[in-house]
Amino acid sequence: MQLNSRPRKHLLEDDAALAADAAELHAALAELVRVYQFRDRDKICCHDISVTQCYALEALVEKGPMRSLALADQLMLDKSTTTRVIDALERKGYVERLPDETDARALSLRATRSGKSLYDAINRELIAQQAQMLRDLDAPTRAAAAAVIRRLARAAHARFVSGVSVGDCGPVCGPGKECG
């Protein structure tokens, strides 16, 4: 008994089409990510901070003060790496540690005025580059591109970051090991 009303042949064709689309998406995203990694490294490092430091500064500017552990979660880094990132930003005067408003024993991290200015300058430069790249696309295409990328980002976050399922790591980590 066939549960789906579509014949098995069409299901196999759909699977093949999905696999081909997935391979094409993988290649396109890999290329885009590589280009953006180099762009970010080249543009951001001109401001004497690393890309990771910029991500930390962005989180503190966009989301407001937070504790180190919350920032580590936001950056998807372990606590010791986050501490080194914050130490460097604090030495440069872009971040400060202040007593937490809800727990006097804890510290909150906050972007300083110069940290916010630096983030704004970097952000303006990166957005100007995006505008140049989008210049030749019509408005509906630009909107659709942003919508698709946001939807893919949400799906990837739900699937890979939030711990829904990353599957068996056998091919990478050895048989019987689970990722996540």
Structural commentary:
With 180 residues, the chain is mostly helical. The chain has seven helices and two strands; from the N terminus they run H-H-H-H-E-E-H-H-H. It has a two-stranded antiparallel ribbon with strand order 1-2. Strand 1 and strand 2 (107-111) form a beta hairpin. It is globular. The mean pLDDT is 86. This is MarR family transcriptional regulator. InterPro entries: HTH_MarR-typ (IPR000835), MarR/SlyA-like (IPR039422), WH-like_DNA-bd_sf (IPR036388), WH_DNA-bd_sf (IPR036390). Residues 22-154 form the HTH marR-type domain. Pfam families: MarR.
N- to C-terminal separation?
37 Å
The proportion of residues in beta strands is 5-15%
The residue-averaged pLDDT reads 86
What order do the strands of the largest sheet run in, or round the barrel if closed?
1-2
Class by helix and strand content? Answer: mainly alpha
CA-based shape: globular
**Main β-sheet description:** 2 strands, antiparallel
Number of beta-strand segments: 2
Uncertain regions spanning at least 5 consecutive residues: none
What order do the helices and strands come in, and which of them pair?
Blueprint: H1 8-44, H2 51-63, H3 68-75, H4 79-91, E1 95-99, E2 107-111, H5 113-134, H6 139-161, H7 170-173
Antiparallel strand pairs: 1-2
Helix pairs in contact: 2-4, 3-4
Quick summary:
With 180 residues, the chain is mainly alpha-helical. The chain is 67% helix and 6% strand. The two termini are 37 Å apart.
